[in-house]
Amino acid sequence: MIFTVAIDGPAAAGKGTISRAVAARFGFRHLDTGLLYRAVGALGGDPVAAARALSPEDLARDDLRTLEAGQAASRVAAIPEVRAALLDFQRRFARSEGGAVLDGRDIGTVICPEAEVKLFVTASPQVRAHRRWLEVGGDAAQVLAEVLERDARDMGRAEAPLRAAADAVVIDTSALGIDEAVEAACAVVAQRL
Ligand code: C5P
């Protein structure tokens, strides 16, 4: 069975948690596409060369979850050649046998416009910054500023900007608990299976 669940949305909206839970519930494979950009940013040097030579070991680095790695990722993600180098791998993953969940910024719009399910998972910047702050600590105002900066860069770039596909189901997690958000996502998938 070929079945793709595309989950897009801004940083810290709950995409990762929802994606893992949907994949586990339906027995699909899961790809966190943000990790690809984080690895390219963390490798340093020429980002286009890094994207073309990306290996599974690069994705397993333990420094990819930091705020700095997120900022570096969003800078290299604006480079068209970097995105082009990562396209085929993501498309093949999306259409591989057995069902796949991909989460990112452009899965429903660019990587897999034919996805059987498209979700746009979002939440207010304040709620997202608070969640991020609970994870990373530090100065709350600084965390909010970084969330807003990354939103502006991801939504404002010319190449594959963050936006909901016209046929995406929007899930606003601002006032939802994790379980409620997961159930809302699973209900959409179950309906289309
Ligand atoms: O989702 P995550 O926070 O790990 O993504 C890091 C950065 O990678 C995002 O801010 C975005 O700029 C970029 N990204 C992207 N397209 C994707 C996934 C991530 O441009 N499909």
Folded structure, characterized:
The chain is α/β, with parallel strands linked by helices and 193 residues long. The protein has a single domain, classed as P-loop containing nucleotide triphosphate hydrolases (Rossmann fold, 3-Layer(aba) Sandwich), CATH 3.40.50. The chain contains ten helices and five strands; from the N terminus they run βαβαααααβαβααβα. It has a five-stranded parallel β-sheet, with helices on both faces. Helix 2 (34-43) crosses helix 5 and helix 5 runs parallel beside helix 9 (140-156). The longest helix is centred in the C-terminal third of the chain and has 17 residues, at 140-156. It is globular. Cytidine-5'-monophosphate binds next to helix 2, helix 5 and helix 9.
List the helices and strands and how they pair.
Blueprint: E1 4-8, H1 15-26, E2 29-32, H2 34-43, H3 47-52, H4 56-59, H5 67-76, H6 80-94, E3 100-104, H7 107-111, E4 117-122, H8 125-136, H9 140-156, E5 169-172, H10 178-192
Parallel strand pairs: 1-3, 1-4, 2-3, 4-5
The structure holds cytidine-5'-monophosphate.
